[in-house]
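To the structural biology subgroup,

Please find below the input and predicted structure for Hca operon transcriptional activator, which we are adding to the shared reference set this quarter. The sequence is reproduced verbatim from the submission form. If anyone notices a discrepancy with their own records, reply to this email rather than editing the shared folder directly, so we keep one authoritative version.
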Amino acid sequence: MANIDVRLLRYFIAVAETGHMTRAAERLGIGQPPLSQQIRVLETQLGVTLFERLPRGMALTDAGQAFLTDAYEVVRKLDQAVDDVRRVAAGIKGRLSVGFTSSAALHPFVPTVIRAFRSDAPSVSLMLDESSTGDLLDGLRDGHIDVAFIRQPQGNTGEITVVQVLEEPMVLAVPSAHPLALTGRAGKAAVPMTAIASEKLILYRRRAGQGLYDAIIAACHGAGFSPAIEQEAPRLLTTLSLVAAGLGVSVVPASLMRMQIEGIVYRPLAPPPRAPLCCAYREGVLAGPTARLLEHVNAAVQTIARA
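Predicted structure (tokenized):
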């Protein structure tokens, strides 16, 4: 049966369901003589008689009746396989692994895109992974990650396409009792970068967020000083917790101001360091769920541009 053309099965099913060669030919859109010939070919390949030829139609033999059940199943499975592969190619079925750094995940852009994709393609098995920029880029290269949201890649990004989707200012996070939390127009005036030259700085660990770390250090150097780094925390939320505990100040993306952590006040900086948000994916992988997610990324970018 493995060598039987599936078209012969469809011809056989049509004749079995109509009980008539001419009506089956009309359903299939072919001539009656070619259909009769194909049914004989099928019977020859199987070595059995599938139909009794009656004066006014066709009737299944016992062998034909038994074969009809299997023919239905084979055709059903083939149709399902074709439908599945087309749905995967269209990006509405399959598997998608999305990675993000902790700072990227806290920007509303990322959950907005993921939520839109989930609504658009609910049958896709979606896996989310939070990790460092370096680990996410490695995951993209070895195929464990399909798309990653990162801040700013460093070093070699060969074979990886990195697209900046937006950029936001960074702000100063200080303990609520800190003098910088209270100065200037009820704490709303921008704090000059030079004002943190003597402060103990708590930063997101460079290994986990090299792009942000280097941007902050570069901004300090640009303001004419080298920062006094008190601690490097493994996660941004840990960084903010240390600030709330009064152990120092930090510089974080403005989107983290949405995190209303007790004991922290956010102040704008002048000039503010900039924190890009980037979308990364493997070069040439522009099909299936990956491509569909990137469509939602582009749509979100366009929405921001129109705002």
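Summary notes: The chain has two domains: 6-90, 99-306. The radius of gyration is 32 Å.

Regards,
Lab coordination
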